[in-house]
């Protein structure tokens, strides 16, 4: 049932997300114009890059005329004496010109005229020093810029679609399929939730990937008793040796790995079985006990035995409180360590 | 340290040194944020710096004292991202609209300080819920704890941590100097169109975060696969994307690039992902209400018992009221919006900060990724509409949201580290309360200084020394809002999906799926490689091996990349290469 729920949920998410992402017809129409401007701008960039690269490659000894033209065209030539390498092109930006003009309220015609004027300025420059192959590359770039002007101007003057109109157009166009997908999401989630609840209430499936169940209360008792024993030993020792520090640190580490982590792994099952309120009542003091265990370890590294001893004592008290918060007789099947990654640093 | 002294934790040395490191980081990170458009992982960098000086050079400080030091430093620094991503938008918009130049630093500082305190107080119950009950991973928190514990963890663990550090540093340097690409586009090499990305980022921090998350991170990976391997090709196959013929262009790389970025990512998946994050968080609030109530009950009883380790809920209530009042004052001072609207914006701003704080805390806890820009964007949009289109008020209150949610994410990482080393949460929170606000005037001052310090305008215009990419992006969104445009349909659809997903019994699945759609896929993929590697290694070597071996290596990856990023940025800035 749980797998069925997950499968339905996945299909539901795919359908609802796909139709949720779908653009409304007016928005799609705008994207046609913006897309054309985008692709044309990319073509301009490519042709300019090719022209600039050819300039570096074919005319390694740039004379003053070539250097001036390259600069005007936005090609950065390597400094004299430096190794030749294709430079980044950053010449006139038709799209930026159109956007800037549109922001001042100019019309499509005015923007087009100005941008074409900008292209013409470049076309009119004397490129005779370049040679046939480079002139061809430069012409390709100028043609690409010319082709970019109208789409860029059209995209720049697009009027935004008001949010409410956008929403209603999207609902009209994609609402039914989106709604169906959403229904599947809810159905899958509800199935998953009820299967999860049944899993928690029933005995642990021996064939599942989970490790065999252990009694949660028993685990908690074992941990509490072990910590209390360490706390007693620590309190009894007045002048601990270096070996005592290391031994106690090692014991705490073992407790964290062997006892604390299985309890932490059981958290989802305890929550499903007893409800979130009881789970919180148990795991709040348990977490505090765990934190004091960690504090004891840190204090031992810092060679502060009294802090380690008092932290262990406090840890045992918190763990006892966690045990008291667990409903009596209701915890027999509580623990089933699933395989989750460890927190342990 | 002699055992007669109390165990050092919240000490003046840790506070003062933390403030010093934090303020320095804040000024530097504001500059980096304006120059490059991103900041660096504050907690990790602060932990490394503090650890190196306190523990290494000065040979003093306990593990928990070092933790206070990094908590303070990263708390102070958390203002840098919030301020440098939002406030510059106001300067940039003011270039074209003289009416938007009429604002002073006082309301900005008040608003950001209110955001800082709200971020700290909202974490009080969330700490219990996310760290103690939900047991979220907070990979950077684990990495910092691993570093702090390293003096006592033995030679083997130190070698593993160091090994991970070196590997991450080498690859990050190679990527930083251009020897390796930042992402490896396997799909493009195989001839797959770029709008079906099969790519991994060269980021050992993402890999390490995935390794620490293991199986729990899989919904994030599947969300990314769904977005980019199912929805993106479907957009093209079903004719939802404009065809090359309609656009009068030929298909090719440029067309594929258009479908991938401006269309599928910016117009479709990203806003949908933001909506899913919001919907998931709303259901999360409902689903975790009993846990939150239990957490509040526990906090209340601990505080009544006296001498507890937890902040009293009264601090939460008092802090929220005080911060709300400050936010209201900032709203009144920020523009001519009237008392009614100021009250409304302050109230909704506070509510949004709580919800967005929960979203970023959960996202950070599960993936180590903090979607501050997306949540700030929604915050500014909300403020814009509620303030009646007042841009100054919207951005100034947006600064509070941005700073506050950054504070939430940072504080949760610090509290996770604290849990793992046995720190006292109350002392961490007290330290944060006492000094986190210091970062605000430093960050705001740095933005003002950088605006006027260079040939004014200092950023956001062609040819300026600093490009302020995030501020420019926010300015462009606000321009769209002013023109009457908003991606409302996608936010609404995403919110509905998030609400539905929130019913599923795996906590946070909606946040993971939403985050996967919000991010470029190569980040998700690298994280996924880490998840799958962790699962395979656990199946082969067992859980104990993961704790003893994989965790320190993954922590080394995260720490190594953070420190190398800082070094690369400093070298680039020093040599003018950035």
Structure, explained:
The complex is a heterodimer of chains A (345) and B (578). By secondary structure, chain A is an all-alpha fold. Chain A folds into two domains: 25-156, no CATH class; 216-325. Chain A is 74% helix and 0% strand. In chain A, α7 (163-201) crosses α10, α9 runs antiparallel to α11 and α10 packs antiparallel against α11 (276-301). Chain A is elongated, with a radius of gyration of 36 Å. Chain A starts with a helix and ends in a 20-residue tail after the last helix. In chain A, 47% of the residues are buried. The model of chain A is unreliable at 205-212 and 336-340 (pLDDT under 50). Chain B has 22 helices and two strands. In chain B, α2 crosses α3 (63-96) and α14 (372-386) runs antiparallel to α15. The two termini of chain B are 45 Å apart. Chains A and B meet through α1, α2, α7, α9 and α11 of A and α3, α4, α5, α8 and α9 of B.
Features of this protein?
heterodimer; A: 345 residues; mainly alpha; elongated; B: 578 residues; 22 helices; 2 strands; 76% helix; globular
Main sheet characteristics of chain A: none
Which consecutive residue ranges of chain B, at least 5 long each, have pLDDT under 50?
Answer: none
Strand content of chain B: under 5%
Provide mean pLDDT of chain A, rounded: 87
The total strand number of chain A stands at 0
Mean pLDDT across residues of chain B: 90
The outline of chain A comes out as: elongated
Give the number of helices of chain B. 22
Ends apart, CA distance between termini of chain B:
45 Å
The SS-based structural class of chain A is: mainly alpha
Share in helix of chain B: over 70%
Question: Unreliable stretches of chain A, pLDDT < 50, 5 or more residues?
Answer: 205-212, 336-340
Radius of gyration of chain A: 36 Å
Helix content of chain A: over 70%
Shape of chain B: globular
List how many beta strands of chain B DSSP finds.
Answer: 2
Describe the strand arrangement of the main beta sheet of chain B, using strand numbers. 1-2
Please report which band the strand proportion of chain A falls in: under 5%, 5-15%, 15-25%, 25-35%, 35-45% or over 45%: under 5%
Termini distance of chain A?
Answer: 37 Å
């Amino acid at each position: 049932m749980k797998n069925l729920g997950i499968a339905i949920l996945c299909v539901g998410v795919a359908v609802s997300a796909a139709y949720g992402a779908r653009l409304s017809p007016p928005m799609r129409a705008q994207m046609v114009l913006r897309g054309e401007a985008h692709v044309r701008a990319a073509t301009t960039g490519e042709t300019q890059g090719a022209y600039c690269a050819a300039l570096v490659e074919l005319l390694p000894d740039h004379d003053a005329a070539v250097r001036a033209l390259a600069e005007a065209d936005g090609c950065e030539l390597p400094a004299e004496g430096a190794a030749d390498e294709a430079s980044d092109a950053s010449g006139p930006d038709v799209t930026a010109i159109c956007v800037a003009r549109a922001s001042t309220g100019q019309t499509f015609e005015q923007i087009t005229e100005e941008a074409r004027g900008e292209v013409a300025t470049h076309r009119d420059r004397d490129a005779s020093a370049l040679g046939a192959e480079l002139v061809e590359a430069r012409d390709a770039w100028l043609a690409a810029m010319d082709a970019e002007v109208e789409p860029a101007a059209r995209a720049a003057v697009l009027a935004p679609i008001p949010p409410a109109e956008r929403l209603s157009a999207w609902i009209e166009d994609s609402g039914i399929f989106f709604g169906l997908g959403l229904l599947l999401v809810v159905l899958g989630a509800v199935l998953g939730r009820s299967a999860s609840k049944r899993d928690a209430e029933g005995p642990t499936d021996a064939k599942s990937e989970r490790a065999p169940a252990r009694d949660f209360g028993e685990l908690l008792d074992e941990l509490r008793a072990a910590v209390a024993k360490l706390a007693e030993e620590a309190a009894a020792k007045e002048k601990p040796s270096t070996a005592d520090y290391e031994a106690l640190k090692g014991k705490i580490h073992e407790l964290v790995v062997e006892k604390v982590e299985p309890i932490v792994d059981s958290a989802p099952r305890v929550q499903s079985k007893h409800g979130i309120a009881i789970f919180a009542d148990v795991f709040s003091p348990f977490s505090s006990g765990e934190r004091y265990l960690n504090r004891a370890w840190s204090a031992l590294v810092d060679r502060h035995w009294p802090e380690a001893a008092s932290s262990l004592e406090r840890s045992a008290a918190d763990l006892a409180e966690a045990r008291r918060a667990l409903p009596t007789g209701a915890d027999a099947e509580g623990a089933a360590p699933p395989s989750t990654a460890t927190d342990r640093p | 340290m002699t055992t007669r002294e109390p165990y050092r934790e919240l000490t003046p040395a840790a506070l003062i040194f933390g403030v010093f490191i934090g303020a320095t980081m804040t000024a530097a990170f504001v500059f980096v944020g304006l120059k490059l458009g991103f900041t660096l992982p504050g907690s990790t960098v602060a932990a490394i710096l503090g650890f190196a000086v306190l523990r290494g050079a000065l040979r003093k400080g306990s593990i928990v004292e070092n933790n206070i030091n990094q908590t303070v430093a990263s708390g102070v620094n958390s203002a840098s991202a919030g301020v440098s991503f939002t406030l510059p938008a106001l300067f940039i918009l003011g270039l074209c609209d003289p009416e938007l130049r009429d604002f002073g630093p006082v309301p900005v500082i008040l608003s950001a300080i209110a955001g800082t305190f709200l971020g700290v107080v909202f974490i009080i119950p969330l700490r219990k819920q996310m760290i103690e009950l939900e047991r979220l991973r907070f990979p950077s928190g684990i990495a910092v704890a691993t570093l702090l514990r390293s003096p006592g963890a033995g030679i083997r663990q130190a070698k593993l941590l160091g090994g991970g550090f070196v590997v991450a540093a080498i690859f990050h340097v190679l990527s930083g100097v251009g020897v390796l690409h930042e992402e490896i586009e396997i799909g493009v090499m195989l001839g797959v169109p770029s709008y079906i990305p099969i790519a991994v980022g060269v980021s050992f921090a993402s890999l390490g975060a995935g390794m620490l998350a293991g199986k729990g991170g899989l919904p994030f990976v599947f969300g990314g696969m769904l977005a980019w391997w199912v929805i993106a090709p479907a957009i093209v196959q079903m004719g939802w994307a404009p065809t090359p013929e309609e656009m009068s262009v030929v298909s090719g790389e440029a067309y594929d690039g258009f479908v991938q970025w401006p269309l599928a990512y910016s117009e479709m998946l990203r806003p949908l992902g933001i909506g899913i994050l919001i919907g998931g968080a709303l259901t999360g609030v409902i689903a975790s209400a009993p846990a939150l109530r239990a957490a509040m009950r526990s906090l209340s009883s601990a505080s009544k018992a006296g001498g507890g380790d937890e902040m009293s809920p009264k601090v939460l209530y008092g802090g929220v009221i005080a911060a709300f009042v400050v936010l209201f004052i900032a709203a009144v001072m920020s523009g001519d919006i009237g008392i009614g609207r100021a009250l409304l914006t302050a109230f909704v701003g506070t509510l949004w900060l709580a919800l967005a704080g929960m979203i970023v805390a959960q996202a950070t806890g599960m993936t180590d990724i903090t979607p501050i820009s997306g949540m700030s964007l929604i915050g500014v949009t909300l403020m814009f509409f509620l303030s009646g289109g007042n841009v100054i008020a919207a951005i100034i209150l947006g600064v509070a949201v941005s700073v506050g949610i950054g504070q939430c994410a940072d504080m949760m990482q610090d509290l996770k580290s604290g849990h793992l080393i046995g720190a006292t949460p109350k002392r961490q929170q007290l330290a944060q309360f006492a000094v986190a606000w210091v970062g605000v005037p430093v960050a705001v001052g740095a933005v003002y200084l950088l605006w006027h310090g260079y040939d004014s305008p200092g950023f956001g215009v062609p040819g300026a020394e600093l490009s302020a990419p995030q501020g420019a992006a926010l300015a462009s969104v606000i321009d769209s809002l002013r023109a009457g445009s908003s991606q409302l349909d996608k936010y609404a659809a995403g919110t509905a999906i998030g609400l539905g997903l929130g019913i599923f019994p795996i906590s946070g699945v909606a946040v993971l799926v939403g985050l996967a759609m919000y991010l470029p896929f190569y980040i998700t993929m690298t994280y996924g490689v880490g998840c799958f590697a962790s699962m395979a290694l656990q199946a082969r070597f067992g859980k104990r091996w993961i704790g003893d071996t994989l965790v320190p290596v993954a922590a080394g990856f995260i720490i190594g990349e953070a420190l190398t990023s800082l070094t690369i940025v400093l070298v680039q800035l020093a040599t003018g290469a950035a």
